[in-house]
Amino acid sequence: MEENEDVPKDFIKLKSEKLSVDEVSELVVSPYCGAVSLFIGTTRNNFEGKKVIHLEYEAYTSMAETEIGKICRDVRQKWPSVKHIAVHHRLGVVPITEASVIIAVSSPHRAESLEAVMYCINTLKASVPIWKKEIYEDEYTWKENKECFWANSEK
Q: Which residue, 8, 10, 82, 97, is the most exposed by fewest CB within 10 angstroms?
């Protein structure tokens, strides 16, 4: 395979169907890379002593995809050796134990892909217009990301 046949790619998807770790990780595999790092954010069954039934996500989809694209460009500037990046986020209802977000990054060595994955999830939570509602047994609440810049600017 020639180097130019494996050009860096970004795979960005927001969808209401169940996310697949295998699908996302396979997107970023490259014969030029010895590392694929993953972050999988799942729905837990509790929050501050309350029983969580499920989560629901909403997004300003076109803006969210644009912002995730900016994150991918930032990753490539900070870690030029990164080959492929995949960011898949679920919308709608996400049951307990299922993935809300899967991020995969490939690079020749582990340090770059691990750092890039952490940067991706932290920046996504801080800047991408995706909103989470936690559904409890007898109530619900819209969750504010502590990292979110527009939530903190009003305080």
A: 97
